[in-house]
Amino acid sequence: MDSLPLELLGTLPDAHGNLLLELLHSPTHRVLYVRWFGNLTGQEVSYASQEVARILAELRYPLLLNDKSNATGDWSEAMDWVEYEVLPQVMDSGLRAIAYVFSPDMHNQLISLRFFERVRQYIPIQMFYDLPSAWQWLRRYHLPPNPAALEPDPA
C-alpha cells in the first residue's frame, strides 16, 4: 500500500483453527489494519471484535482500516452488539475514523452497508472496494495535539 508501512501484531484463529483475523499496524500513522478471512458468522465477528477493541484500547490509535476483501458470510446477528457495545469502547479508546473495504461477497456487502448506515451517525466511516482508495481516504485525517479533535485534513 502506498506509504503505509505495516507491522504484524498477530493473528486470531476461528474455532476450527483457521485464520480469522490478521492484525497489523503502523505506529507512524497511528492506524490499526484489520484483515478478515473466511466465512464470517455473527459469533466469529463478536469474538474478533473483542480482540480488536482490546488492541485499540492498548494502542489508542485514532484510525482503523477494516478490510473484509478476503471474507464472506452473514454476520448480521452481531450487528447490534458491535454497534452498542464494541463501538462505544473503541471510541472511548480514541478511535476517530474507519475506512472499510468491502468483501467481494454480495451478501456480506449488504450487511456491511447496513453496518455503515448505523455507524456513520457516531464516527466518520467510508466504504471502499479497494485498499489503496481506503488508505487514501483515511490518511486525510491528521493528528492534532489533541487527538480528540481529529478532523479531516482539507489538503
Topology, please?
Blueprint: E1 7-13, E2 19-26, E3 31-39, H1 42-59, E4 63-72, H2 79-92, E5 97-101, H3 106-119, E6 125-128, H4 131-138
Parallel strand pairs: 3-4, 4-5, 5-6
Antiparallel strand pairs: 1-2, 2-3
Helix pairs in contact: 1-2
The first-to-last residue Cα distance is 20 Å
Report strand order across the widest sheet: 1-2-3-4-5-6
User: What's the CATH architecture name?
Assistant: 2-Layer Sandwich
Query: What is the N-to-C order of secondary-structure elements (H for helix, E for strand)?
Result: EEEHEHEHEH
Total individual domains:
1
Organism: Hymenobacter luteus
Protein name: STAS/SEC14 domain-containing protein
Condensed summary:
The protein is α/β, with parallel strands linked by helices and about 160 residues long. About 35% of the residues lie in helices and about 30% in strands.
Structural account:
With 155 residues, the protein is α/β, with parallel strands linked by helices. It has one domain (7-143): 2-Layer Sandwich (Transcription Regulator spoIIAA), CATH 3.30.750. It has 4 helices and 6 strands, in the order E-E-E-H-E-H-E-H-E-H. It has helices at 42-59, 79-92, 106-119, 131-138, and strands at residues 7-13, 19-26, 31-39, 63-72, 97-101, 125-128. It has a 6-stranded mixed β-sheet with strand order 1-2-3-4-5-6, with helices on both faces. It starts with 6 loop residues before the first strand and ends in a 17-residue tail after the last helix.
